[in-house]
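TASK: fixed-backbone design
INPUT:
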């Protein structure tokens, strides 16, 4: 190797130097007082010549990493190989970018087949603007963009997501993204890696809209948990064939595990899964994949270090996260590791056959092989979505074009099983509809049945039917819910009494819809305030500040026949009846007890629940005791204390909606009991046991059913007449003894909604079948913000509407009421789903 200097006053001076000292030679030229005109490698590629010439013009020292990359290109060209220029961006400084861009621009990349931009370490000094300039310069030849920790280039990463890129492989491991919003044009992208993006929770509604060629997607060890939102976002990827949220220990790419030895029957053919049948993760050549494996090994060894680095950077919305990954309990297992259990029955062609029956032995063996392969498969780095029950079956059914999930191939038999399990445990569309119908089709059928369209308007004969108005509205609602993967969430925690007044934030602890006026809602706060609002207009209707020591309001109940009156109970035992018409409609510091309070009842110590009967004659109170107190509303007297109804404290007591003497109690002694005042309380009408302490119960609107919720997602529906089990809802437990669960009805008695104080998800299930319709996840604004479900109610006047009392930590205890509209998609203002801080979880009250 020779370095030649052209001196203005003499002949060229040729010096033999090894390549490792060419950089030093270049920097020492000024010491020899040479007037440098041109620098080049004798007998070497023109890439180095042009690069060194650009460095000289810009008075920048050449970068040894760039020189090495150009040397590799020359070597590839000499051996008639594809010329791939690999640039290590962690070896570059901002001053290295202008000469590199000039070099690549001059030759127009005509001699280079592809350019790879890679990051090998976390020691990065290159700024985001320089990175974007480099991406733009090599745009047409860009093949791989590998950013191990894109926290260093948050602005650049945002620009890439918004504008798109022409690369084929995009590696964004350890990225700081919370809500993925890749809406730019990624027309050539076929592989996307988001592994270890421990802040990633969800996807914007427009994400993945311009990725027609994306075939491989990896999201191991993220915080993605929502099956419905995730499948809706991924359904836009028409070419997606390989997906994983957890990886096999021996697999680097998303393809099928080559060591599984799994034989799949697909149609009448058998084929063995092998790595050669699928393209490698970083390209189509096996050679390239083998070169990448050592890199991955080193990455895995450094995962903890990279995770620590990632924690030091804020996400797009600002906050860092010490609790990076919200993991399920230790006894939980990723869903794909578990084989479905149907009492040793094998499902073939949507029918169950017992092992003892004379079914085809070949098909039975295939079914057993499928289950054993899943059972023996060992996965690592799972995202929370993997711990959802029937996760694998849900994804396979929702993405019918998928061929590989979590490094396990999907055969025809498994796809049939997945579809049957999906139909058994999930609703494809509300009200057990087998397919998702569009609003346009529903309206068209409505008009055809009404005779608006003439027979000539349609050449296709359609059956004539007349749909009832109730059925039509139900079909319309079902269509809207099916087409809204992300429901509209609206936070209501700040109010003003008139336009010129300042807003005031509250910390709600309990709330109730008005039984007859769809506009009104009352809530009590942790500070002892009583607030009545018009939740439609978000205007203050009535307000009473706390008096004396701050005591949380835990019990609220409207009167039915006197719609302006309500009962409120605090945790200090105080009980009062208020008239909303007498409450001031503006924020005030003066407690108007004489005007607003109609009755003050005898205290019930450590109160947690109050409830008024159907004719407004009596109300009951329960709390941290084994007793229940009966009060007469008319006289304001406490009539009786029913002692020792349970062995442990009674968290909730509820009257029936239509029977003024019938009530039920839920206790932490694991029993639900039904009582009738006419029979006395010496003996309950019946006792229904639970396996854990009961937190909540409520009657269905027609009093036909009783919905009971016990600790840690034990939810069941009982027949109110005798307490027999009607439906048990299959909801995964977390293993926590403090995960207090509450459930209520929605859409009359059609659906139930359930949430727990240590989880940030509300589950919606069909009340009759137990099938899951949808999950609604709450997301905090910052990465440290973890939200929980304190309480919830279905809107009694609007189908598929509910309100959630959300509680969360950081940095101070805070709470808010969030209205959820399942009929509307959250397209704009997606960040209004949460407030600022969080509330300690509690099992008190409803």
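OUTPUT:
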């Amino acid at each position: 190797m020779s370095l030649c200097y052209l001196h203005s006053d003499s002949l060229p001076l040729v010096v033999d130097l090894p390549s490792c000292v060419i950089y030093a030679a270049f920097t020492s030229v000024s010491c020899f007082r040479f007037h440098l005109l041109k620098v080049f490698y004798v007998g070497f590629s023109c890439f180095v010549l042009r690069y060194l010439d650009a460095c000289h013009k810009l008075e920048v020292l050449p970068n040894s990493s760039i020189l090495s990359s150009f040397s590799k290109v020359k070597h590839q060209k000499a051996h008639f190989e594809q010329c791939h220029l690999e640039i290590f961006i962690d070896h570059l400084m901002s001053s290295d970018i202008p000469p590199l861009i000039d070099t690549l621009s001059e030759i127009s990349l005509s001699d280079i087949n592809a350019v790879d931009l890679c990051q090998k370490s976390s020691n990065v000094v290159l700024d985001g603007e320089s990175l974007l300039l480099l991406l733009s310069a090599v745009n047409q030849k860009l093949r791989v963009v590998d950013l191990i920790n894109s926290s260093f280039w948050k602005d650049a990463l945002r620009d890439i997501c918004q504008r798109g890129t022409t690369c084929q492989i995009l590696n964004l491991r350890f990225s700081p993204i919370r809500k993925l919003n890749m809406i730019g044009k990624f027309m050539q992208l076929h592989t996307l890696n988001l592994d270890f993006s421990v802040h990633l929770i969800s996807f914007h509604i427009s994400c993945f809209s311009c990725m027609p060629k994306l075939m491989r997607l990896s999201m191991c060890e993220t915080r993605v948990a929502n099956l419905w939102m995730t499948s809706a976002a991924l359904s836009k990827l028409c070419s997606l064939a390989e997906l994983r949220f957890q990886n096999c220990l021996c697999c680097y790419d998303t393809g099928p595990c080559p060591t599984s030895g799994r034989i799949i029957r697909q149609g009448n053919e058998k084929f063995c899964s092998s790595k050669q049948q699928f393209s490698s993760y970083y390209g189509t050549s096996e050679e390239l994949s083998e070169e990448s494996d050592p890199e991955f090994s080193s990455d895995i060894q450094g995962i903890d270090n990279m995770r620590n680095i990632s924690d030091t950077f804020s996400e797009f919305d600002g906050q860092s996260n010490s609790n990076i990954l919200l993991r399920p309990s230790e006894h939980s297992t990723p869903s794909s590791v578990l084989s479905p259990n149907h009492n040793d029955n094998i499902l073939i062609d949507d029918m169950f056959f017992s092992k003892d029956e004379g079914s085809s032995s070949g098909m039975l063996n295939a079914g057993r092989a499928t289950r054993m392969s899943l059972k023996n498969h060992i996965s690592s780095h799972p995202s929370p979505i993997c711990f959802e029950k029937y996760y694998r079956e849900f994804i396979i059914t929702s993405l019918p074009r998928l061929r590989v999930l979590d490094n396990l191939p999907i055969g025809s038999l498994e796809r049939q099983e997945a579809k049957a399990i999906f139909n058994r445990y999930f609703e494809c569309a509300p009200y057990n509809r087998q397919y998702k119908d569009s609003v346009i089709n529903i309206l068209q059928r409505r008009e055809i049945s009404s005779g608006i369209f003439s027979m000539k308007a349609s050449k296709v004969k359609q059956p004539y039917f007349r749909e009832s108005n109730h059925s039509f509205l139900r079909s319309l609602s079902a269509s809207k819910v099916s087409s809204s993967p992300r429901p509209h969430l609206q936070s209501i925690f700040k109010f003003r009494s008139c336009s010129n007044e300042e807003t005031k934030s509250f910390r709600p602890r309990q709330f109730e819809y008005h039984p007859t006026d769809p506009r009104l809602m009352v809530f009590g706060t942790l500070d002892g305030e009583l607030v009545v609002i018009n939740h439609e207009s978000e205007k203050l209707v009535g307000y009473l500040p706390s008096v004396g020591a701050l005591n949380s309001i835990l019990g609220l109940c409207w009167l039915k026949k006197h719609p302006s009156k309500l009962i409120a109970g605090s945790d200090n035992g105080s009980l009062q009846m208020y008239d909303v018409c007498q409450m001031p409609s503006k924020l005030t510091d003066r407690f108007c007890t004489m005007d607003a309070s109609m009755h003050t009842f005898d205290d019930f110590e450590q109160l947690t629940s109050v409830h008024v009967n159907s004719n407004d004659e009596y109300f009951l109170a329960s709390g941290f005791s084994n007793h229940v107190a009966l009060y007469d509303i008319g006289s304001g007297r406490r009539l009786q204390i029913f002692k020792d109804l349970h062995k442990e404290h009674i968290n909730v007591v509820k009257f029936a909606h239509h029977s003024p003497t019938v009530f039920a109690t839920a206790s932490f002694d694991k029993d639900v009991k039904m009582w009738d005042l006419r029979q006395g309380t010496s003996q309950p009408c019946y006792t229904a046991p639970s396996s854990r302490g009961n937190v909540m119960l409520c009657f269905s609107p027609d009093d036909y059913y009783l919905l009971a919720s016990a600790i840690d997602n034990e939810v069941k529906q009982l027949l109110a007449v005798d307490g027999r089990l009607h439906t048990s809802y299959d909801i995964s437990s977390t293993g926590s003894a403090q995960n207090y669960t509450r459930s209520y009805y929605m859409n009359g008695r059609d659906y139930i909604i359930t949430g727990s104080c240590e989880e940030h998800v509300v589950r919606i299930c069909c009340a009759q079948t137990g099938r899951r319709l949808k999950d609604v996840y709450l997301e905090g604004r910052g990465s440290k913000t973890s939200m929980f479900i304190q309480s919830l109610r279905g809107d009694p006047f609007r189908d598929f509407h509910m309100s959630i009392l959300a509680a969360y930590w950081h940095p101070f205890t805070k709470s808010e009421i969030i209205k959820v509209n399942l009929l509307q998609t959250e397209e704009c203002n997606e960040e209004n789903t949460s407030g600022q801080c969080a509330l300690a979880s509690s099992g008190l009250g409803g």
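COMMENT: The first helix runs from residue 22 to 27.
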